[in-house]
Amino acid sequence: MIRISQLHKSYADNDVLKGIDLEVDQSQVVVVIGPSGSGKSTLLRCCNGLEVAQRGTIEICGERLLDHGTLLAEKALNRLRTQVGMVFQSFNLFPHLSVLDNVTIGPRTLRGMRAEQANEQGEALLAKVGLAAKATAMPNSLSGGQKQRVAIARALAMEPRVMLFDEPTSALDPELVGEVLQVMKLLAKEGMTMMVVTHEMGFARDMADRVVVMDQGSIIEADTPDVIFSRPKEERTRSFLQAVL
Ligand code: ADP
Ligand code: MG
């Protein structure tokens, strides 16, 4: 579903991604961990064309989003982007729209879905994330955990084939983290293909098919959670885990 090869990205003279190779198969959950500044967010943002890497190739569902450093043309790019849902640390809901309208605006404006159908789908998605009762609420009245669940429902409304999560629980009070992870676990169990940047090592241990460890723009190690958490090969992995666990 995702195939990244030899991805290089720099900001001015700062090499942020130094030749990333990574594949995510259908229904796999890949968790990306690593110290702050190691390039995790940049890697995710490259996967839906929010950032353009200077070199390398990214295939999403067999289509080349980036072909040896050249981004797909705008029309095809926008179409491919709808297949890649993204959830950020900051929820980025539209404050002036109701919860339901936040979820339906994508399908209505980008896919021309009729309001009735969009609302029906939106209500089903809100039920799925446990927020059926909040359809008419405004985002400001919600807790952080509820906002993030709306953000997930909004991403799902575009019927993506891949979901990217960038530290989805990092902005939440500790008691609200679980409700968001629970929704992510549900998606994983349903077979959603997911790439997740998180410091929630419990989630990584329980849900990841593979854990990818990044440091200074490179993947230093990638393996099953069992290997990464019990017997990592790299000293840098060990010291990172010691710092976060
Ligand atoms: P992580 O998500 O692992 O913390 P990032 O991908 O956010 O890492 O950042 C990796 C590096 O890229 C950092 O050195 C950061 O300062 C730099 N960086 C990220 N975004 C930008 C940007 N828009 N402009 C310049 N430098 C950036
Ligand atoms: Mg980041």
TrEMBL record:
Membrane topology label: Peripheral membrane protein
Stored PROSITE patterns: ABC_TRANSPORTER_1, ABC_TRANSPORTER_2
Chief location category: membrane
ABC transporter domain segment(s): 2-241
One of the Pfam families matching this protein, by short name: ABC_tran
Residues forming coiled coils: none
Xref: Gene3D superfamilies: P-loop containing nucleotide triphosphate hydrolases (3.40.50.300)
GO cellular component annotations of the record: plasma membrane
Compartments where found: Cell membrane
Recorded superkingdom: Bacteria
Keywords: Amino-acid transport, ATP-binding, Cell membrane, Membrane, Nucleotide-binding, Transport
InterPro entries linked to this entry: AAA+_ATPase, ABC_ATPase_HisP-typ, ABC_transporter-like_ATP-bd, ABC_transporter-like_CS, MetN_ABC_transporter-like, P-loop_NTPase
Molecular-function annotations in GO: ABC-type amino acid transporter activity; ATP binding; ATP hydrolysis activity
Family: Belongs to the ABC transporter superfamily.
Name this polypeptide is given: Amino acid ABC transporter ATP-binding protein
